Structures are given as C-alpha cells and as structure tokens.
Amino acid sequence: MNHKDGSVKVVLTAVVVNFFVTLAKSVGWMFSMSPSMLAEAIHSFADTANQLLVYLGIRISRKGPTREYPAGYGQARYLWNLISASGIFFIGFGVTVYHGVSSLLNPHPDAQFSYGLGIGILIFSLLVEGYAFIIAYKEVYSKKGSLTFNMFIRESDDPTSIGVLLEDGIAVIGVFLALSGMAISNYLHSQIPDAIASILIGILLGMLAVIMAYMNGRLLINRSLSLSDEDEIRKFILELETVDKITVLKTEIIAPDQVKLSLEIDFNASFIEERISDDSVSNIIQKSVKGVGRAINEMEKKIQDRFPNIKYIDLEIN
C-alpha cells in the first residue's frame, strides 16, 4: 500500500511545460485565427491553471494535524484536484466546444490561415508535452506495481499523478487533432475541419474532467481499501495471539498513504489469564486492566509496523 510520493515532480514539470506551450499556441492562434489552435491554447492554459491548483492542494495536504483538524489536511489534495476537474470542464470543455461550434456555424471567410507557423508551433508542443507525458507515465508506472492501469485508477489513494498523466496524454492527442484539422482546412480552404477538431479537443477535455471528478470525489467520502488489502489486514490480525475473533473491521482512506482502521475484536482470554498469577481479587482486576492495555498497545504497534499506511486505529473490545 505504501509508495513514494513523486507527484510534486510530475505536477511541476507539467506546469512549466504547459506555461510555455500556452504562450506558443496563443501566438500561433493570433497569427492563424485557427479554431483548433485556439482550442489548444485554451487547453494548455486550463492545464497550467489546474495543475497550479493541484500543486496548491499538495502543499496544503502536507500540513500536520491541528486541534481543528486532528487527522491533518491530507484530503485537501482531493478537494483541490476536484476543483481542478471543475476548471477543466467549464474552461477546457465549455469554452473550447462553444468556440468550435461558433466557428462551425459562423465561419469567417476573411480569416487568414497561417499553416507554416501553426505546424511549427504544434510540433514544438508535441515534443515538450510528450516529454511531460513520459515523466508522468514513469511516475504512475512505478506506483501501480502489478496492478493494471484500470485497477490502479479505481484503487489508488493518490490520483494526482494519474490526473496529470491523463491530462498530458490528452494534450498529445489534442495536438494531433489540431494538426489534422489545420492541415485538412489548409488543403480544402475551409474552416470546417479545423472547427471540428476544436470540438473534438473540447470533448476529450470533458471526458478527462469527468474521470478526474470520479477519482477524487470517491476519496472525499472516505472510501475503504480494496477487499484484498482488507483481507490481508484481517489475516494478519487474526494471527496475533491476543486476538480470538474479529467482529468488525473497517478502513477509511483519509489521505494519500494514510488509512484509518476501525476494529471490534474479542480478546483471547487465555492469553490474558497467563499474565495473572495472584489470587487476590484486587490484584487480579488491576493486572487484568494493565494486561489488556498492554496487549492493545502491542497489537497496535504490530499492525502499524506491518502496515505503515495505517496511521489511526479505533479499537473496541467486545
């Protein structure tokens, strides 16, 4: 369950790349008036702004526990990722599709199309966004282990790197769509293919926003660990000599690499009895209480040593 957090490197790489790509695409649009080039400029601007929000979420999530927030600020990462997804939907999807549809329904016959400049800028964009995609892919690949990509999306407790990977992947696809739209429009002397490419780019961004909202929204409502992880925890606890039976076992993901475990157990009575040798009633009671307390502390330490992600344990004895 534990993994090294390389999300900051991925996010900062994407921010720097998308900032310069946004500038280049904006210049390209001003010279070409291409709808797909504008879509790509909006796309890169949305990515830059949203990844800055993601970075803000990472910074806030690293704050330690306080009186007001005894479990820390870990879920701030999910909250800001969700806000980022909303930005992608309304800016990336909404504005891009609106402009594409407007260009499709109301083409500007006098607009000048600068194919040479546009193709050069998009090739530059493809190279740098491809680099950002490779960085994000390596980070996600190192985290997912033996899981398939689909399983990792469903089970990961840190969707930040996955979100950046999807954004970068769609950015690369968007460049290919813009290139295709511009090339066909230049060949046919029609803005229609270019406008269609703009709409397709917007639809991709809308799909990305929905996926990101799902990945982060499920973690904001305290999703549990996977059944396989819970079974592993259950098996380990049942093997402890202090535990006779587990009545209830629940887990909640409260932040990346932070899990809360709630347990209701039956203690192994014979294990406690072995620690009581005095026949005095008061001594028996006193030793019983101390023995149970000591057994609880030992059990919690063993659980957290075996599963470092479990930061909080609520234990009830039946």
Give an overview of the whole structure:
The protein is mainly α. The longest helix has 30 residues, at 76-105. It is 69% helix and 10% strand. A three-stranded mixed beta sheet has the order 1-2-3. The model has no long low-confidence stretch (mean pLDDT 81). The protein is elongated.
Oligomer: single chain
Query: Helix amount, in percent?
Result: 55-70%
Strand ordering within the main sheet: 1-2-3
| Total number of helices | 10
Which features does this protein show?
single chain, 318 residues, mainly alpha, 10 helices
Task: Describe the structure in brief.
The chain is mainly α. Helix content is 69%, strand content 10%.
Task: Give the topology.
Layout: H1 7-32, H2 35-61, H3 76-105, H4 115-144, H5 149-155, H6 160-188, H7 192-220, H8 227-238, E1 243-255, E2 258-267, H9 269-273, H10 281-306, E3 310-317
Parallel strand pairs: 2-3
Antiparallel strand pairs: 1-2
Helix pairs in contact: 1-2, 1-4, 1-6, 2-3, 2-6, 2-7, 3-7, 4-6, 6-7
